[in-house]
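ok so heres the complex, two chains, lmk if somethin looks off
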Amino acid sequence: MAQYLPIIYAIAALGGLGILFGIVLGFADKKFAVEVDDRVSAVRAAVSGANCGACGYTGCDAYAEAVVHGDAKANACIPGGAKTVKAIDAIMGLHAQALEPMVARVRCQGTCERVTARYDYSGVPSCRAVSGISGGPNACEFGCVGYGECLSVCAFGAISMVDGIAMIDDDACTGCGMCVGVCPRNIIQMLPRDQTVVVMCRNEAIGRIARLQCKTACIGCKRCEKECSTESIKVVNGVAVIDENTCTRCGACIPVCPMDCIINFYERNLQDEATATA
Amino acid sequence: MNPIVKILLFMFSCVLTNNYIFSRFLGCCPFLGVSNKVETAFGMGLAVTFVMALASLFTYFVYYYVLVPLNLAYLNTICFILVIASLVQVVEMFLKKSAPSLYSALGIYLPLITTNCAVLGVTILNITEGYDLLYSVLNGTFGALGFLVAIVLMAGVRERLETAKIAAPLKGFPISLVIAGLMSIAFLGFSNMFAGVA
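and the predicted structre for the whole thing:
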């Protein structure tokens, strides 16, 4: 028995100290208890929980606290959408307006077979790295380079790489805009969901060169500009740009484009669904 | 020597010559982590001071009145960590209640005081150097004040770095480490200051 005494002492001493400190801490916890506003946890439960940072705060927790303190608007949670705005309104008694639902659009159609390759790249698989090397791997210096920088930041799995360009899944995209900032080519743009007609090119090169670079490049021919009845589509810096405030989404510019670089997402999504079900 | 003079010299040597960061390289994690702003650095310094002073006091009793009589001196590390962790918990609760802005500014570095090597270092040095109760507490308090001086100086420099023009490869952490090294060299100047008297 005597040879076990040191072990028992050790256990008793450490355990005793532990219990003693535990009791002291228990009292301190009661004494220093901080009352947390119930609304913070309620708002926290109502927002998306993606921690995407689209609201401008460091995370959903920080946003929830800011909402309750009145520093943030109730409609800043983009992934949460109208549902979250309503929920926060109910908690806070606010009457905020829902944001216009947005969706990310990759303004490029330069798939591997359409765009002319300039060199073979076998370095770090990163869009930033490759687009820094003599203007990128493609002849077109404006388009998607296809290494999926955007895919890695998407918290909702809405981006996939198809034939060397990023494709957005409209249903999965919440419009948080995380992908916009990481694209070194700046080809991802947040557009209102109902802006179905989109110019799918940012190539600013003059027509002849743009045509050599990619089979679906905007050559700045201005045919769309002439066709538009509301003057909503303009060729700026050699590339067609649609003003979504005046565009009626009539789609008159689509058939006249000789390079097929304006597309109607409503119709394309219908087509995609048809091919998916067929 | 006059005991009061001796104590004063001991205090100064804790802050300057035996500075925990610059001479012993203990506690470098919060020193680099929380030295972005003078205000938070000062708060961190005060939190460390509080924990170090009380840890010195408590570990003294734990060591000489619990561990030594029971022949359990070999358990000092784990017992001291227990004491320090509990103290940090109390500090954390206290700050959360009374200084929420400081609490959120310190963030992860506050619970990290638990495993701050400077705090554990002080308590173990107190034992190995054979300090009595008064000297243990003085060592803890003024060693921590040395930490406070170091981290506030560092934060002052880093606040100015925000607007300074720094070569791209040195931006951020590298320049901070360079500055820490230079400050360490500067503190080397104090190293023999009290050698003749203490």
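quick notes: The interface with chain B takes residues 6, 9-10, 13-14, 17-18, 21, 24-25, 28-29, 31-34 of chain A (CB under 8 Å). thats all i got rn
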